[in-house]
Design a protein that fits this description.
By secondary structure, this protein is mainly alpha-helical. It is built from two helices and no strands.
Length: 71
């Protein structure tokens, strides 16, 4: 984009809004679910995201190596 200030302001405001929504949602969910369950859900979710990122990273590295070998 030719307007870096606009990009910065847009991404910064999106981060603030997403954080606010997350805090409000997390606060309301914590009234229904015990803290131990919320921590377990968060741990499992982060673990799954980490495994998926690792798998995707290994797959993309394998694809790059195949391209290099074929040249």
């Amino acid at each position: 984009s030719k307007k870096p200030l606009g990009v910065f302001l847009g991404s910064a405001s999106a981060l603030v809004i997403a954080s606010l929504l997350g805090a409000l949602t997390g606060g309301s969910i914590s009234t229904f679910l015990p803290e131990a369950i919320l921590k377990s859900i968060a741990s499992a979710t982060f673990f799954i995201i980490g495994v998926r990122l690792l798998i995707n990273s290994l797959k993309s590295n394998g694809d790059e190596n195949k391209e290099i070998d074929s040249k």
